[in-house]
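Escalated from tier 1: zinc ion holo job.
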Amino acid sequence: MVKSSVLGYPRIGADREWKKALEAFWSGKLEESEFHSKLKEIRLNHLRKQKEKGVDLISVNDFSYYDHILDTAAMFGIIPKRFSYEGGVVPLPTYYGIARGTKDATASEMTKWFNTNYHYIVPELDGAAPVLTENKPLEAYREAKQELGIEGKPVIVGPLTFLKLSKGYSASETDAWLARLLPLYVQILQELASEGVQWVQIDEPILVTKLNDADLQRLKTIYETFAAAAPSLNIMLQTYFESVESYSDIIALPVNGVGLDFVHGLSGNLASIKAVGFPADKVLGAGVIDGRGIWKAPLREKLALLEELAEIVPADRLIVQSSCSLLHVPVTVTNESKLLPELKNALAFADEKLDELVLLAKAISASGAEFEDALEKCDTALQALKQSGERNRNDIQQAVAAISVLNPGRSLPFAERHIAQQKKWQLPIFPTTTIGSFPQSAEVRKARQQWRKGEWNNEQYANFIREQIDIWIKLQEEIGLDVLVHGEFERTDMVEFFGEKLAGFAFTQYGWVQSYGSRCVKPPIIFGDVAFEEAMTVEETKYAQTKTERPVKGMLTGPITIMNWSFVRDDITREQIAYQLAYALRQEVEALEQAGIGMIQVDEPAVREGLPLKEEDQAEYLAWAVKAFRMTTCTVQDTTQIHTHMCYCEFHDMIDSIEAMDADVISIETSRSHGELIHSFELNTYKLGIGLGVYDIHSPRIPRVEEMTSMIERALRVLDPKLFWINPDCGLKTRGYEETIDSLRNMVEATEIARAKHSLQV
Ligand code: GLN
Ligand code: ZN
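Tier 2 regenerated the structure:
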């Protein structure tokens, strides 16, 4: 009988009860003991659900109080020195302090979990030897067994992945750290074995990235040690998010099962298994149900894939799995009441995926006819969406196909455009600007609520927005900024705002996923052909421009960012989706230009996020991402100045692509990693207009003039003063009113100092 297995279940709850509990605890509204019982209740509910659905191997220890990497570090007593931890089980205030900062100590860094939108807390291996503070997987196993009679499968982050994701040590110390961690892992596994645990899932997603020989040797050491220490325990060595590198080495390890992703790593993993085969003494965890996507699985295709695998691995050694933890999808489709039926019927969130897994596991060992109804129903649902009007907009498909074969670009090269633009705009040296949004005060949020609830009509809301624009245009003039913005008061979220106005998008009511800690996002769903319907930003931008003589910069979110922050359809490629978005946004760019807006910023903060894990796939992605940006912006006049903005610092490896976007001006978030970025410009200077953020908008602190002056001076050592802009490092919507004004005043003062110093030289 083929078994089904889930690699992890979302923590947040169908109604985000987990998030609410965390936040209530943080704000002191929930006592620690009540908090623990609340989380236990949530955790058991999730396990119970999986049991009721009939999942065979249910993960335990996938639950977390914040993040599973932080949990692993805490379990090993790996606490940054600044938190003055004194040993023993890590107290909650320390645990949350590492994640969120305390008044005495800054939080640990947070970063993206592979290529997902989940963020983990980066462990800091800064000295103290690790110790086992508690055996979390064992506790989770016992709880599931005692409370629900579930024979759980503890999940643990593997040592190699844990080490690779940690920082604070040098490459030469890797083996020393491994030697310190291994005995702790061994103790965990031995305790699990003596408890009678059958399967343990050790997650090593790092195995889908390229490993050098030393790492492969470490891998061998790790799993040989485990096999020798706990021979009775079945270890499922679990990988996900891509196909594994070094397949032959991995299947030769002394583990009892290897879990592979047959969704995101389908072609690579399938090719490896066919070419090399699969050892007769191991179980294959076949990740065939997409743990990251929101669509119903085409069950017939999945069965065929499983049958193909069963030719290599006998069915009794196959486990049908989700491709990765279900952490990355919302909890359930059932409560959605506002979606088009053909869309709703084609969706499968976590709970629906449990049903799919169980069904596939049964269907593969049953006679075809038995499950025919279920397969038929699935076909019908997917077919209905495929045939829906939203997916068959011939006008859009033809227009996009026609422009996709062209090589989009501005009519003049940058150097010539720059001259034309200078002549038209007459900007001073070091023009100052902001990134787009101004503080979204309680008043702004309240106004939007009133309008959404129908308490305010469109006219009242529009008037309110206009008043905000008036206030901030005046303020920007007073402060002395050169290029103004309208402030984005009408937008909650930079993707949602456009998604609501473009065709092809849908919004769920409860489709939340965890982004980091208690922060959840509700990504829009791009389910149909994306199309421009009517101007989206022209009214507010044009209005702002009537209030000032200075240029007002229009503000759009770029195609790649909209795509990367949405769930997308999987019947066409991401590249095609990006071009559809680009074509739609280009119509907005043109509408702005027609309305007399001569500077237009197309934000692309999320380009880096879509970068494929496999190095060999990255160039192709970057090429079409750049093309989509150029497609969006290439039709404007030479004198129209295209701006873009990007967040985060890891740009050194993609500066060429950023340059190829050919934006007249880019503003980059850099103040937290200024040194690094400056260094990359030393190696490869940037030849277009550029503003390096001169202060960090993530902190309420008002930057001093001298701090910004020194940032500016450092940047000018490597960047051309004639192309240099001065701006904060990101949008100001999360900041307060007073602090924003004071910070910007200081920024303008720093600019004047720089102008006085450099004007003569330019
Ligand atoms: N224009 C957006 C803003 O100012 C950009 C936000 C971002 O970079 N994430 O808010
Ligand atoms: Zn930003």
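The first helix runs from residue 17 to 26.
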